[in-house]
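Priority: medium. Attachment 1 of 2:
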C-alpha cells in the first residue's frame, strides 16, 4: 500500500513537472502556476490523510493482537487446571471413603 501511494505521488509530481512551462510574467501563466501548486498541495494533503488513516488502522490492529495474546491460555494454565482437577477428584474420593467408613461403623 505504501508503495502504491509513493508511486502515485511520483506520477503526480512527474506529470506536473513535465508539463511545466517556463516562468513568464503573463497573468495566464501566473494563474496556471498557482493552480498547479494548489493541485500539488491538495494531492499532498490527501496522501497525508491516507497515510494517517493507515497508521491508525495499524495501531488498532496492534492493540487488538496484544489483547488476543493476553486472553489466550498458556500451557502453564492448562497444566494448572489439570492438576487442580486431579486434586478435586482425589479429595472427593477421600471424602467418600471416609463417609463409607463412618457408615460401616
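Attachment 2 of 2:
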Amino acid at each position: 500500500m505504501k508503495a502504491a501511494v509513493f508511486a502515485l505521488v511520483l506520477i503526480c509530481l512527474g506529470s506536473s513537472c513535465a508539463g511545466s512551462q517556463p516562468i513568464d510574467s503573463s497573468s495566464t501563466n501566473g494563474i496556471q502556476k498557482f493552480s498547479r501548486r494548489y493541485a500539488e498541495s491538495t494531492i499532498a494533503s490527501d496522501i497525508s490523510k491516507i497515510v494517517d488513516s493507515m497508521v491508525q488502522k495499524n495501531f488498532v490492529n496492534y492493540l487488538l493482537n496484544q489483547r488476543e495474546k493476553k486472553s489466550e491460555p498458556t500451557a502453564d494454565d492448562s497444566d494448572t487446571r489439570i492438576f487442580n482437577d486431579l486434586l478435586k477428584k482425589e479429595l472427593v474420593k477421600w471424602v467418600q471413603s471416609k463417609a463409607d467408613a463412618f457408615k460401616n461403623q
